[in-house]
Amino acid sequence: MPESIPALAAREQRLACPVAARCGGCQLTRMTYHQQLAHKQALVEELLAPYCPVSPILGMERPFHYRNKVHAALGVDKRGLPLSGVYAAGTHRIVPVKRCLIEDERASRIIQTIVELLPAFKLRVYNEYTGRGFLRHVLVRTGWRTGEILVVLVASSLEFPGKRAFVAELKRRHPEITSLVLNQNDRHTSMVLGKRETVLFGPGYLEDVLCGKRFRISPQSFYQVNAQQAEVLYRTAIAMAGLTGEETVLDAYCGTGTIGLCAADHIRRLIGVELNPDAVRDARENAARNGVANAEFLCEDAGRFMTRLARQRQTPDVVIMDPPRAGSDLPFLRSLIALAPAKVVYVSCNPETLARDLAVLCEGGYRAVQAVPVDMFPWTEHVETVVLLSKGEVDSKKIRVEFSLEDMDMSEFQDGATYPQIKEYVLEHTGLKVSNLYISQIKRKCGLEVGKNYNLPKSEDSRQPQCPPEKEKAIREAFKYFGMI
Ligand code: SAH
What we know:
Blueprint: H1 7-11, H2 20-23, H3 33-48, E1 69-76, E2 82-87, E3 94-96, H4 105-120, E4 135-142, E5 149-155, H5 163-173, E6 179-184, E7 196-201, E8 206-210, E9 213-217, H6 227-241, E10 248-252, H7 258-263, E11 269-274, H8 277-289, E12 295-299, H9 302-311, E13 318-321, H10 330-339, E14 343-348, H11 351-363, E15 366-374, E16 384-391, H12 396-402, H13 419-430, H14 436-445, H15 469-481
Parallel strand pairs: 5-6, 10-11, 10-13, 11-12, 13-14
Antiparallel strand pairs: 1-2, 1-4, 2-3, 4-5, 6-7, 8-9, 14-16, 15-16
Helix pairs in contact: 9-10, 13-15
S-adenosyl-L-homocysteine binds next to helix 7 and strand 11.
């Protein structure tokens, strides 16, 4: 068993899910978590064997309730009463699910409430065959650090009969909902969300914190479904890029800009490219709200964009690419080879298309140096992998030392934001300068983990200056902003 798997994961029991067989969402429920990690490790090793060594998979300590995006399909039971669940694999038959072991529990409860409220408010479930009825799906997205909750009601129409009373009751039962959106989907389609929407309350989007940066996520934008592991994934990808602060980095398939923006403090310039206009709007907004001034985002097909860069011979120093499951395409890969940036970090959610694309890149003169699998989707067959590719001869020993995962200090990020990020926030919002000592004192007061470098003596008589109340207030505000308390 790879050594990096947390001891707790190894002891984890099975997923005792009563609907596993009929739901089909989790494919590995017959294995313990420990066995799953070994299975995924072996799979990645097998596919990537021709290209590079594979590090031990980074698993979760508690692999439950990690899904921050919960989608419920609505239907009716034999008596005509509404129920929610998932479509049985490959069908439009609903398997009722009340409690899912991988989904965020707050989301499950909200969905149950909505289903219960429907009859009282005379709201009918949409019938796909007759096209009659109102509510089709409910989508809930939750913020891991912020605790914010965005609920999207997907209905056949934006005319919502009895809207006010329904919304008031939902709010009363779930004051934790921070925004409610009504989305219209009247098409005969397997897409969950339609194009038109109206905000019923709140900002109409969700905010969450990753690597100390705050991100806005619209209902339609991509956001990693396991935010806790997304942080591990991003740290790994950024560490593997071995950034010095001088680089121009291209974040291709950037979504809301999360990976690039998490790296923005360590580079000279960031360019993001993404096809979904909502995500690009979010990415620009995310750069602005995090005070990132060295980033720009373009809404374009990544392959076309790369082809243009190649024609103009504009070579970024590092390309981070995170394509969807289908992988990248030949125009992108060929232009990448033509541009020949020194390093490419390929983040992939599908090891099969990853291996296919690695073949093209290696044929074009790249060398895959190392792969690190990350378990973003416990209990499912999916596995995420980060691969570092490099141009020309590389001293593999040197590179291995450079991003030795054991040496990567992730402790700073485990609590949401780094000391410099907190200092900057406090300075910007209050004009006050606070020291590491003060931050660590308040962290301890709040019961937060204090990084190893800041574990200062606790004894009463050690003559440490104590954080004044005014600064304590400012530091606590920063903790709140970063979702740490
Ligand atoms: N790196 C981001 C998003 C990864 S998901 C994150 O970690 O959150 C893949 C993204 O690729 C999605 O946002 C999707 O909209 C985008 N995408 C899909 N096809 C694309 C294409 N041809 N060109 C550019 N972006 C594309």
